[in-house]
Design a protein that fits this description.
The chain is α+β, with helices and mostly antiparallel strands. It has three domains: about 60-320, alpha-galactosidase from lactobacil brevis (Beta-galactosidase, Chain A, domain 5), CATH 2.70.98; about 335-635, Aldolase class I (TIM Barrel, Alpha-Beta Barrel), CATH 3.20.20; about 640-735, Sandwich (Immunoglobulin-like), CATH 2.60.40. It contains twelve helices and 38 strands. Strands 6, 7, 8, 9, 11, 12, 14, 15, 19 and 20 form a ten-stranded antiparallel sheet that branches. Helix 7 (about 500-520) links the parallel strand 26 (about 475-480) and strand 27. Helix 6 (about 455-470) runs parallel beside helix 7. It is globular and about 85 Å long. Bound molecules: alpha-D-galactopyranose (GLA).
Length: about 750
Amino acid sequence: MPIHFKESSMTFHLFNQKFSYILKILPEGIPVQLYFGAPLIDKENWDYLLESVHRPMQVAYSLEKPELSLEHLRLEYPSSLSGDMRPGAIDLLQENGSRVVDFQYEGHSIQRGKPSIAPLPACYVEEDQEAETLQIRLYDKEIQTELVLSYTLYEDWPVLCRNARITNSGSQKLVLNKLMSMSLDLPDDDWQELVLPGAWARERNIEVHPLHTGSQSIYSLRGHSSHHYNPFLCLKRPDTSEKQGECIGLSLVYSGNFLADVDVNPYHTTRISMGIHPYTFSWPLASGESFQSPEVVLVYSDEGLNAMSQAFHSLFRSRLARGEFRDKPRPLLLNSWEGIYMNVEEKKVLEMAQATADLGLELFVLDDGWFKGRNSDRSALGDWVCDPAKLPGGLKNLSEKVEAMGLQFGLWFEPEMVSLDSDLYRNHPEWVLHVPQRRLSAGRNQFVLDFSNPDVVDYIATAMEAILDEAKISYIKWDMNRSLSEVYSSASSPEQQGTIYHRFILGVYALYERLTCKYPQILFESCASGGARFDPGMLYYAPQAWTSDDTDAVERLKIQYGTSMVYPISSMGSHVSAVPNHQLHRKTSLQMRSAVAMFGTFGYELDPLLLSSQEKAEIQEQIAFMKKYRKLIQFGEFYRLQSPFEGNETAWMVVSPDRKTALVGYYRVLQQINVGFRRLKLQGLLPDALYSISNKEEMEYGLELERAGMVLSDDSSSENRNTDEGDYLARLYLLQAQEPE
Ligand code: GLA
């Protein structure tokens, strides 16, 4: 059993092969954090780790207990306002106007498995044996309110999942203004913060900062997790690298406004908290009501960043993503967007689909522009019916024709949005999120539907179901192209307005749940102007996401490399597009574009009718290659080898579960001349297996490839006389272990 309770010291030891997490209940009923790190040997108590000393100016717990001060304890779930001076995890307004709370230990349970927190997405277990859950019940007797802190420890992953749930069992009307999913106090501040900031078309860049005294936070106030900050935070030791050292990764399974805060106090202790952003949250909690926080997934690694990422990858791939496609190699597709944008016309679409089939692809996706009146981004969102002017035969007919070509058919939707020029808006102007009488901000010329209102969700679901029931649809790209503003619902009372951001996301989850349950055979890909909602909450419903609207191969190196910090390769939508690239106007080779896109769910996003016969032949080879190796790529173990954020070259590799097959991607942005020799140290191979390497004559042991490295030196180590390789070079190396004779 990985969770031990020591009654004599009221200590909980949560541990597996990878880490220990130790907390204790003080005699005052306060849960305090003692240790989180590499595994310790189990014992009865670790009380010496409390480190309580008397400090001048401290606020003592009471007159009788002058030595005890909440501001110097490492608290498991702090509340501030009653002695702890750091940011608290909870803010609960009571009828008397006070926000002081006093939650004390009341009891706990330890059970096999992992309880669901539906309707919120969360990691799950397939069998109860996989994990164990500790629930600590805290109680504030003045207001008869219960707070349950949940901790799930997976046996085989270095993973701890946390969440909090509050229940008002008294008679007061409470208002919950903050309920973080977790808080964690660490005893020192010798950490660096690694985060994934970005913007449209340059999502999830890697940034590393040393911690400083005071607060440092990342957040979203945009109504979705956003391009700007991913709901992920990592604390790493200054000397932690990809291959070695200690780090803690935190990932919030949520798609709306979030706050991840790291607070360092002048005594150099570090408090991390993560959860729904309190600024846009105020939740009336009437008698008998509960509020459940989203889940935070914590990963501990003392084997570097790559091991942390691999834990996130395998957990999210197999215990967060769900459905038929979870374990399946993903269909190779052609998406129409960059090929024809909104210029959808039946004859052209069918010709493109035929060309898609001729290339050997498996799925044809009709992107934006197919529905009634959708001639620009100013119109038609909300009216989910086929445009007979564009597709006179209708979607049923079109999808059947596409299937007759041997392809599957996929369709684009943007369910949460509405255009003013739409029948939906004309009939239901009150269904737009807006504050009556006030200016309404526009984003991409469109507006946001009030998904906090179940009638709106039901209306959109019914419209989508009519299409899904009629046409043969195997894939949906679910887009979301603007941030939320003036968030106010005319369907809710003034007191409920602080709930709308969260209830909007619950509405999105409810629609996803309804559609994914009713149509389990449909593969969902989430999207939000590229990667503005690339988060674990979405992965629960849609096992893949469009990584970025930027399809330029050079930029994609950074985007996919940064995304891999948390998210598995099987989740990253990545397509080969035409050159000059539509975002950067850069011309990279077809080989470079495909060698980057192959490390994801692979496809093309261009007009196939414009391809030369030479390009077609090259693409057919790429597709054949992907059909053979996509399982290895999408479900193998991924290693980052060389960072695009640190130089001109990038390298990564995937290794099969039996470690006998591996694929290395090596990319050089600009050609150089007369530079040093190059080697790439590989990882994850069987040390004593002899590997053949494509494009190389020698056979090498796994150990050599890890220790001496794979030689990459080429003509650029001298004068570049004998090569036509210029800028934007990509090489793929396939490694195959030889069977002993
Ligand atoms: C967003 C998506 C694109 C495309 C367009 C269609 O920008 O990210 O991939 O679907 O919308 O309008």
